[in-house]
Write a structure and sequence with these properties.
mainly alpha
Length: 226
């Protein structure tokens, strides 16, 4: 089954709402106090921007006590905003992509007809495009964009070292690969069905800034090393 990570806000869990209530009201069971604020997605996005939520998440002794969706949305939204990217839709999509990756589902959006697809190099993507059309083409473009969003955003040191040791392309090259993949996905009819056409376009247009914001997030908060 083909899937595309689309939203963290739509996939928050009961434990997340308990955590939000505890941080904002002091009582994990006091959901009625903020319940009306958590129904509307726009308002929920504003609630999750509260500075005390970011601080509480950074201070968690057990990050697994909340969902990956809540964890990454708050961090990504904060870091993109700090970079001047005040776009909830892009932040939500990027966070959803990172949440999938964190669960070992980095290739969850791959085409079911090409389960072996692995885009460690751009040539892998080019090879998989051969003979592909229709729906599979959309999912391959999304897979490629998402893969290199994660690689350039969270693991730029790995890409730079690989470039130095093996003569592989650098981070800037893969920025272009991801940008073009998202633009191609944007123009596919399925992008409208997933309500992601505008998000893909905006993400592609500001991919370099988004990547650099994720670099800072990884360095300051995630400590992924090389």
């Amino acid at each position: 089954m083909n899937t595309v990570p689309t939203s963290c806000l739509a996939r928050l869990q009961p434990c997340d709402f308990e955590f939000i209530s505890l941080v904002l009201t002091g009582e994990s069971s006091n959901l009625s106090a903020i319940g009306s604020l958590l129904v509307d997605s726009d308002t929920l996005g504003s609630v999750l921007e509260q500075p005390q939520l970011l601080q509480a998440i950074l201070e968690l002794s057990d990050p697994l006590s909340i969902s990956a969706e809540l964890y990454f949305f708050v961090l990504v939204r904060h870091n993109l905003s700090e970079a001047g990217i005040d776009d909830v839709g892009v932040a939500d999509y990027v966070a959803a992509t990172l949440a999938e990756h964190s669960r070992g589902n980095a290739q969850a959006e791959r085409s079911s007809n090409h389960p072996e697809a692995s885009f460690n190099y751009h040539i892998d993507f080019i090879e998989q495009l051969a003979g592909v059309s229709g729906y599979d083409l959309f999912f391959l473009h999304v897979q490629c964009g998402n893969h290199f969003l994660v690689m350039t955003g969270l693991f730029p040191i790995f890409l730079r070292r690989r470039s130095q040791r093996r003569g592989a392309p650098g981070v800037g090259y893969y920025e272009g690969v991801a940008r073009n993949a998202y633009l191609a996905a944007r123009d596919h009819p399925l992008a409208e069905e997933f309500a992601l056409a505008d998000v893909y376009g905006r993400l592609a247009n500001r991919f370099a800034e988004t990547r650099r914001a994720l670099n800072r997030m990884a360095e300051e908060y995630l400590f992924l090393g090389s």
